[in-house]
Amino acid sequence: MRMNGFKEVPEAVGKFAFENYPDYPSWRAAALPELKRLLGFDRLERLERKPVVPESLWKRRTPLGTIEKLRFSPEEGEEACIYICLPELPPPYKTFICLQGHSTGMHNSIAVEWQDETVPKAIEGDRDFAIGCLKRGIAAVCLEQRYMGERSSDPEHHPACLLPTLQNLMIGRTAIGDRVYDVDRLIDYLYTRGDIDRTRLGVMGNSGGGTTGMFAGAVLDRITHVIASCSFSSFRGSIGSMFHCACNYVPGLLEYGESADVVGLTAPKPVVIVNGDADEIFPLDEADRQFRRLEAVYRAAGAAGNCVHAVGGGGHRFYAAEAWSAMLPFFQ
Ligand SMILES: [Zn+2]
After folding, report:
1. Which CATH homologous superfamily contains domain 18-331?
2. Would you list the domain boundaries of the chain?
3. What is the top-level taxon of the source organism (predicted)?
4. What is the mean pLDDT of residues 203-221?
5. pLDDT digits (tens, 9 = 90+) for 276-285
6. Over the stretch 5-25, which tens digit does the pLDDT of each residue have?
7. What residues have a C-beta under 5 A from ligand 1, the ion?
8. Rounded to the nearest whole angstrom, what is the distance from the C-alpha of residue 115 to the centroid of ligand 1?
9. How many C-beta atoms surround the C-beta of residue 255 within 10 A?
């Protein structure tokens, strides 16, 4: 919908576009610090990192494995919650951190109702990420994203993204930076457990979860694999061309580059980009163009086969069969 004040977003200036650099190492050395700065992640990295000591809220066995809910503090004054879902296998566990998009929250990942986690719920669009992981013998750690779900004041009607996004503008932070930092702090905790396979520690998400997954894979060295669904297009052709939630916007991002210049920082780690061919808010034609640039980045990084484009037939949702068949060869 076009609104008063709508601007045609100009072609990206892209000072940190991959093509401006002679090789992958020199590009990454320049681009990664700049992306961290734009996200406000450099500020978060300088915060005191107190040990993450979660509190267990409940734990139960299910036919697919054990699910435990815990609460932890990623930074002072902030509380996050997670489900740790472990298959009936001996550790160390191959693991995916699972991120939902704008919705009532992480309860979707374990296929239960948001107001009562004991009541099963059928989940549309393959968004029951933890169930999909457990069925494949993979542990799932479902993180409630900041300002969404249980971390929103009114999860049923709208996420609480707008106000903190505006406040963040005044202090040089961003919602995406905050969310990536929560993933980083969660990994601090996972590394203390002793039962997580550090060589198979992926992040996956759809929509607003895929967005965090894309940036987390780019910024966080400890993430080893990425599945980003219905979040990859061009920035200009998706969030720059139509209404999206405020939390998607990073000041100065188009001066930095485009989506391939973010996800390219993930190389050489395996990344699966998932799109729906009829997803109107993350258009496939723009995704195709950026994916071709992403392939060039991966070739330059000596990892040509490690980025895969999985396209599902339909709209804005996750495509589990397509995504997993692309990821499992890297993950098993
Ligand atoms: Zn939002």
Report:
1. Alpha/Beta hydrolase fold, catalytic domain (3.40.50.1820)
2. 18-331
3. Bacteria
4. 98
5. 999 999 999 9
6. 777 777 767 999 999 999 999
7. 159, 161, 245, 247
8. 21
9. 13
